[in-house]
Each structure stands twice: as structure tokens, then as C-alpha cells.
User: What shape does this take?
Amino acid sequence: MAAFEFSRTPIQPEALRARLADPACGGYAAFEGWVRDHNEGERVRRLEYEAFEALALREGERILAEARARFGVTRAACVHRVGELAVGELAVWVGVSAPHRDEAFRACRYIIDEVKRRLPIWKKEHYASGDSGWVNCERCAGSGAQPHDHTERHAHRG
Amino acid sequence: MSAAPLYGLVLAGGRSTRMGADKAALAYAGRAQLERAMALLTPHVARAYVSVRADQTEDPLRARFAQIADTHANLGPVAGLLAAQARHPDAAWLVLACDLPRLDEATVAHLLRARAPGRAATAYRSSHDGLPEPLCAIWEPASGPQLAAYVAGGGECPRKFLARADTELIEQPDPRALDNINTREEYAEAMATLTPDSGGHPACRISVQYYALLREQAGRREEILTTTARTPRELYAELSTRYPFSLAPEVLRVAINAEFRDWSSPLAEGDAVVFIPPVAGG
Assistant: This one.
């Protein structure tokens, strides 16, 4: 089974955690990204994730391989949702097992940061006001050639 | 006897001394001359190479193409020919200089039709001095040992070599097509007369997939189109005339065949292109 995957159905962290079990490991760290009910002062009702999966799967595996090599962790995995998600749902899960806790924490942080920065995945927020918008895209468009900084701070409605 | 397989070589190992700038990188009609020459050559040959000096192999423009590095230093264009013939002695070589901005598809096609595989080479007679033009010519395998012997005897001039060799000489269909440029003034004149066009580049079929905001603005997920765009940059400009894209290229990334690529990567028949809007995973 691939270490990086997309899921169209709710992510089951317990099953994923079991995959990382290893007798050589004394530490396990996981990160869960949840759909929150607000962004940039807007109330968020639901959202959609869309991915360019052929490239994202390759790049996702590269990120996990980098984490294993850089931090010496034993196992690393990541699952990202695509499709429609409700507030409170699990959008992304990262898990790492390692001989010691420090490398597990650091690898987990590295993976989620790189996933957010590098993978061709897009998020459309649907707001309580009835508006919707692609996060990170709408204001870039309005301001012309401003380089995208890969954070969500300037998400806006479309 | 059957003709030897035809390989292609663009000579880009010159020092561009008189120009004072790399002639391979000079742009005409929006595209570096090395790219234009490779685009002209590639459809006609089984394999296409750029000939470089040993110290140019890391140059980003030249590194986009398969390379053959010179094994002789300070020998001029003959060094590129010797290295190519040594690498593939059984191939014939369609050789192009990279300072011929007016060279067009018609001139290359005419040369190919006139090819005489049983002779040492097929070359145009210069419209200026009547001598063979060695750097828009077909060099047959038989010319290899002869050229090596000529160089071993102290010769360095491919024009003189072809003048003495068994060369099929043909007339230029366009007398200016082989005018090379060596100075800033010649470059300026050539630039002024060359308009943006396909530069002899054949149209190719490209598939484009759209995601997120671009999918909504294009009103479709995917299409296959026939285009003369040579790079993703040109393709995005073409698509922007058709769809109300609001994202500037500066905020997008490009993938070809599901790998990240540069905006200036050459596009080839059958490529699958995706323009990647700012991402928001996690």
C-alpha cells in the first residue's frame, strides 16, 4: 500500500496508525488537519478539495521519502481527502513512527508543511454568506502578478 | 545502397567573440536561437543533439537538449563535427549552425530532398561566395574518416574541406536564408525583419487539464488542442485569449506529463500540460 494516498471517504486514523507500528519504534506522532468553521472573518459552511492526483501522488511520496531520510524516522504516511467536506471533518492525516520522539515530531511537522506548500491540491470554501472562493487564488487574481506566498492568510471570496 | 540514418546536430560551442554575447541565447521572435534551430531540426532526424564545448555542458539553455561535448579544444566548428562523428560513426549528420536566424523549414526541407547519400556530403552553395556552406549541410558517414584525416593534417576549415571533398552542391531556394549574424548590427537587423510566427515549428497536439479556478474559468476539465505554441508560456498566452483566466503566469506553476517543469520547457507532440494555480492543501 502506498504511503501517500488520497481518500474520497472519511479518513480512519486508527487503521492508519496500526500501519505504522514497528517493534524498533519507541515513538509515534500524528497530525490531523480539520475543517474549521471560519477563515478570514468569514463563516465557512463546507469546503471542497480537488487534486491533480497523478503529480500529487508522486510529489507526496517524495516528501515522505525526504522525511525518512532527513530525520531517520522508520515509517511515515499521509492521507489527504478530496471531494466535499463538512466542518469538523478530517482533511489531512500525517503519521510517523521512529525510534525516539524528537525525530517523530520533527518529521511530522516537516511533512505537513511540505504537503501544504508543494502538493497540487486546491480548496474551495463555501461561506455562510453564500459566496465561495478558491483559497489563495482569488486575491492573487485581483492584484495581478503578485507572487503567491503559499499561505492561507489572504484567502478571499470569489 | 541504403542511406545512413540521419541524426541532427546544432553547433552551439562557438565563443561568440564578435557578438560579445552568446549567439545561441539571442532571442528572435521571442525565442532563443538554439531553441529555434533545435525545433527546426528535430522533426527531420532520428536523434537531435546540441554540440557544446566541454565547459558548456551545465549551461541551462544547452542542458535542455541531448549534448555532444567537444573532445578537441580551440578547433572551432570542426571540433563539434568530429565529436559527433566519433560518437555515431554510422550516422549521417544534418548539421546546423546556431547563428542562422533566417534559416527556415523550406530551406531545410529542400536540403533533405536533395540529399545524395552516396557522396561525402550535401551542402548549399553560398549565395555570397559560391563555396559550400558546411553548417547547413548533411555530412554522410563517409566524410568522417576524411575529416579526421584533414584535421590530423592541420586543417581546421570545414568550408575548405567540403570544397575539396566529394560534395553534392545545391542552390539556395532563398539566397538570404543562410546569412549568419556575428555582430550587434546584424542581430538588430535580423530581429527587425523576423516577426513572431511559428518559425517553421510544426503544430502539435497537446492535452491540457484544468483544475480548480482555471477549470471553472475554462468551463472544462480537459481538452486536446492543436497548437503551434512551443512552450507552456506560449500555450498559456494562447489559452488566455480564449478563456477569462484571471491568474497571471507568475502565480502559476507548470506540469508536463505529471512532473513540474519550467515555463520555457519545449512542448512535444502528445504532451499533457497542467497549469497549477496557487495550492491550498492541508
Notes: The first strand of chain B starts at residue 6 and ends at 11. The mean pLDDT of chain B is 91. Chain B touches chain A through 23 residues (CB under 8 Å).
